[in-house]
């Protein structure tokens, strides 16, 4: 078999790249080592975690907010097996959707582990032990990432778990220790905290979601504390030891000899992910990697081997599904001679807790470090009529604009539907809009989006109306 393009990996980056290649008239194949398409995102990442987040939020609202709305509930209980079952159905529907798209776009799907024999020949090792070879003119590596689990944490997939196993616990644990105060740990911690699990987070840095704006960290930590989270910031984990019924986590205060132990039913390790490039035969073709194990690429996302490209989690940049999708389209269009563009500054980041956290552009800390003159407009969600109506009053919108030109440099949101609201900020910044441009746009009332307008007014000569 000979193809114009072969994509290794069927996650959001891979399948989107394959579809765009097919749309552009290229004979396309996609190789996936697992029996279902969709990669981490659809199977054990974005989609199933959001399904459980939604289910747990419904339960939490029924327990804590329904009475305020005049709704009485008796006999409320958690049916964890049903939550897991529904999550599985959501995943299955999405993966079948990808299968349909492959057929619709006439993309050949190969199931097995793909690896390079040469720059133009790929071996596919199948589950039954057989192998198949295909030839290809171009290749796109989109194999994603795997959780980082240090050896000292004794990862056993039973009591010491990663996000993959955390998605399938069929009862509500009494206690859970989460190592890492980033997106994955806080999202999954939210799922179980809402259901009644005592959550303790150990984070090496001095704040949670440390790569996001400091005000977002403060707002989210305050909300999660109210949900019952306990935080050990500025601490590290030395060892994790598991028994049949639980775990013991040894924690040490950073820059100190002080240690203590935490006991729990589970320890969720969520300290980041590593590029998955295992057994791809990169050495057979001389593909170079950087010091962090990521595949090195040029501005066209091409490796040092002509005709072989890499996208998504295996290269530098944020490990985000939508970043991988943009890169997949970018590479497909580059291959056919078009001039695509990806602005990495405008790839939004989201934390799907409740309230959600969403951001795009520069943080206040980054602007300070770079010496960029800026001004700030902030507006609290509690001042919105829509927020009061829905009881979602936590959070704020923060707009950072250039002090001299008024161009919007960053937008940071904590609040209801922040993940959707950030799209307005991305659109404005794509067209290099000013804070005044946003302030003069008519925003429907009553909506959460009005907080964007008010924050923009605040950044424009402190003109916010409702505070």
Write a structural description:
This protein is an alpha/beta fold. 33% of the residues lie in helices and 26% in strands. It contains 14 helices and 22 strands. The chain has helices spanning 12-23, 39-44, 46-64, 80-104, 163-166, 183-195, 214-227, 282-285, 321-335, 364-370, 385-390, 418-430, 435-440, 450-459, and strands at residues 2-8, 28-32, 108-111, 113-118, 121-125, 131-141, 145-147, 160-161, 175-179, 198-203, 230-233, 235-242, 247-253, 259-264, 266-269, 273-275, 308-310, 349-351, 356-361, 374-380, 396-402, 408-415. Strands 1, 2, 3, 4, 5, 6 and 17 form a seven-stranded mixed beta sheet that branches. It has a five-stranded parallel beta sheet with strand order 8-15-9-10-11. α1 packs parallel to α9 (321-335), α3 packs antiparallel against α4 (80-104) and α3 runs parallel beside α6 (183-195). It is globular. The model has no long low-confidence stretch (mean pLDDT 97).
SSE blueprint and pairings:
Layout lengths: L1 E7 L3 H12 L4 E5 L6 H6 L1 H19 L15 H25 L3 E4 L1 E6 L2 E5 L5 E11 L3 E3 L12 E2 L1 H4 L8 E5 L3 H13 L2 E6 L10 H14 L2 E4 L1 E8 L4 E7 L5 E6 L1 E4 L3 E3 L6 H4 L22 E3 L10 H15 L13 E3 L4 E6 L2 H7 L3 E7 L4 H6 L5 E7 L5 E8 L2 H13 L4 H6 L9 H10 L8
Helix pairs in contact: 1-9, 3-4, 3-6
């Amino acid at each position: 078999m000979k193809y114009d393009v072969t994509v290794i990996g069927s996650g959001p980056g891979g399948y989107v790249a394959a579809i765009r290649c097919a749309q552009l008239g290229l004979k396309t194949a996609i190789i996936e080592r697992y029996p279902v398409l969709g990669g981490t995102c659809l199977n054990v990442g974005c989609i199933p975690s959001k399904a459980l987040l939604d289910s747990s939020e419904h339960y939490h609202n029924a327990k804590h907010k329904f009475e305020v709305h005049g709704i009485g509930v008796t006999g409320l209980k958690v049916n964890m097996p049903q939550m897991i079952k529904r999550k599985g159905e959501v995943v299955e529907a999405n993966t079948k959707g990808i299968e349909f798209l492959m057929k619709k776009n006439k993309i050949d799907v190969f199931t097995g582990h793909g690896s390079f024999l040469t720059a133009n020949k790929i071996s596919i090792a199948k589950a039954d032990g057989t192998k198949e070879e295909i030839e290809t003119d171009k290749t796109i590596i989109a194999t994603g990432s795997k959780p980082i689990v240090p050896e000292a944490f004794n990862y056993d997939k039973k009591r010491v778990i990663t996000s993959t196993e955390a998605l399938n616990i069929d009862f509500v644990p009494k206690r859970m220790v989460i190592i890492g105060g980033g997106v994955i740990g806080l999202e999954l911690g939210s799922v179980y905290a809402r259901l009644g699990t005592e959550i303790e987070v150990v984070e090496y840095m001095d704040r949670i979601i440390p790569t996001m704006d400091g005000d977002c960290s403060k707002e989210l930590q305050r909300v999660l504390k109210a949900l019952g989270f306990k935080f050990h910031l500025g601490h590290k984990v030395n060892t994790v030891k598991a028994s049949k019924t639980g775990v013991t986590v040894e924690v040490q205060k950073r820059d100190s000899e002080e240690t203590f132990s935490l006991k729990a039913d589970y320890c969720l390790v969520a300290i980041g992910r590593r590029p998955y490039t295992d057994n791809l035969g990169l050495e057979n073709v001389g593909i170079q990697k950087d010091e962090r194990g990521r595949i090195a690429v040029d501005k066209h996302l091409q490796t040092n081997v002509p005709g072989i490209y890499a996208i998504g989690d295996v290269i530098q940049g944020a490990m985000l599904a939508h970043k991988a999708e943009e890169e997949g389209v970018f590479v497909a269009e580059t291959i056919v001679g078009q001039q695509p563009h990806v602005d990495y500054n405008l790839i939004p980041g989201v934390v799907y807790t409740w309230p959600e956290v969403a951001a795009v552009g520069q943080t206040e800390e980054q602007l300070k470090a770079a010496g960029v003159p800026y001004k700030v407009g902030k507006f609290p969600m509690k001042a919105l009529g829509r927020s009061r109506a829905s009881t979602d009053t936590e959070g704020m919108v923060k707009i950072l604009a250039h002090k001299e030109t008024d161009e919007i440099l960053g937008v940071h949101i904590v609040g209801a539907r922040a993940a959707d609201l950030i799209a307005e900020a991305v659109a404005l910044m794509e067209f290099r809009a000013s804070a005044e441009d946003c302030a003069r746009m008519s925003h429907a009332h009553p909506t959460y989006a009005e907080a964007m307008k008010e924050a923009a007014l605040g950044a424009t000569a402190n003109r916010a109306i409702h505070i």
